[in-house]
Amino acid sequence: MLSRAALRSVVARQSTPTALVAARGSASEVSGVRDEQNFPRPVRGEPGKVRLGFIPEEWFQFFHSKTGVTGPYTFGVGLTTYLFSKEIYVMEHEYFTGLSLLVMVWFATKKFGPSVASWLDKEVDAVESSWNEGRKETIQTLEQAIEDEKKSQWRAEGQELLVQAKKENVLLQLEAAYRERAMYAYSEVKRRLDYQLEKATVERRISQKHMVEWIVNNVTKAITPDQEKQTLDRCIADLGAIAARK
């Protein structure tokens, strides 16, 4: 129980640096490049095994390689006997008070130790879970930031496609304007050519009419009254000959 309380105090003093290390490590974990070998994650320490309630297991292991299993107990009993026999530790009235306190502590440990230890374990687990929760929230935030960045890149690519489509639309508009102007030029040229053709046709018709009238007038002027009478008589004779043949 006492070892767990000491562990809880040490963890509380080291809470801020460890949380910072965990937060920094979470960002590297998202990227997948954390160096776990050189920069391992902090792990919650567990109290070592003890015997007789307060003597560390390492003490017995130290004697075990030299004196065997009974060495630590023999050393403890011999040392206590030596202290009592040489009156280095005097058993005065305070001794019995300490013995009474030791019995009370032993009883309290047996009676309330498991419940207190369970409560302290829950407190330590709550602190650890809060740290892990913060680390998980940081990881989720960074993952969401990565997803948002991917969406932003996708939207940027869409903007590139949109700009390309706008460029093609402008080129199509330029092509349509060019063809419209080419058609306008063709229509204007054709209209002018049709005008010139019609003008030439009218001039030719007028010239022909004027030439015919001029020839007719000159021929009419050249015919004398005798020639006209002779021609008229000849025509009457021809008509009579034609009528006689019928």
What share of residues are in beta strands? Answer: under 5%
State the separation between the terminal residues, measured CA to CA: 161 Å
* Topology as a string of helices (H) and strands (E): HHEEHHHH
Major pleated sheet: 2 strands, antiparallel
Mean pLDDT, rounded to whole units?
Answer: 80
Shape: rod-shaped
Determine the fraction of residues in helical runs and give it as a percent range.
over 70%
Could you explain how this protein is built, in words?
By secondary structure, the chain is an all-alpha fold. The protein has a domain at 2-150. Helices cover 84% and strands 2% of the residues. Helix 1 runs parallel beside helix 5 (93-222) and helix 2 (15-31) packs parallel to helix 5.
Gist of the model:
The chain is mostly helical and 246 residues long. It is built from 6 helices and 2 strands. It has helices at residues 2-13, 15-31, 57-67, 71-85, 93-222, 225-245; strands spanning 50-51, 55-56.
Which SSEs are present, and which pair or pack?
Layout: H1 2-13, H2 15-31, E1 50-51, E2 55-56, H3 57-67, H4 71-85, H5 93-222, H6 225-245
Antiparallel strand pairs: 1-2
Characteristics:
84% helix, rod-shaped, 246 residues, mainly alpha, two-stranded antiparallel ribbon
